[in-house]
Amino acid sequence: GGHVDHLPTADTTEEAVTRARAGVVVVCVAVRCFWPDCGEGHDRLNLSLPLEEDALVERVAKAQSASSSGKVVVAVVSPGAVLLPWSGSVDGILLQFLPGQEAGNALADLLFGRVNPSGRLHTTLPNIENETQMTPEQCKSEGNLLDFDGTARAN
Hints:
By secondary structure, the chain is of the alpha/beta class. Helix content is about 20%, strand content about 15%. It has helices spanning about 15-20, 50-65, 105-110; strands spanning about 25-30, 70-80, 90-95, 145, 150-155. The strands form 2 sheets. A 3-stranded parallel β-sheet has the order 1-2-3. The chain has a two-stranded antiparallel ribbon with strand order 4-5. Strand 4 (about 145) and strand 5 (about 150-155) form a beta hairpin. The longest helix has 17 residues, at about 50-65. The termini are far apart. The model has no long low-confidence stretch (mean pLDDT about 75).
């Protein structure tokens, strides 16, 4: 069994930090995309979570490590690769790629041990933006549309 509390506002960091000192904490964060910055037919501007979400995870992890009384698990929803600068400071990460309408039930099943999170990542998660140091010249499709045979055509 377990207990789930929802902290409904963005102004609840202090409460989350206080609770982190008490036991196991699950922090749920997500990449949020709003048109025209990203979404259907648009690329994301970067691979980061919103800054306040990274800060929340970092503060909760710091409070938890200071108390030595529990664990911090972070549930992340992202449409693809995402930067997790705090990954070494938390006890577990559950990464959900576009999980759909049953996301909450699936997450609960994982957290409460009803199923084993045995999936494999279908993508490599970078440590920093542009870790592979790709240049615009290496992105041959940049500014072009690719046909099914891989040949480029003008937009």
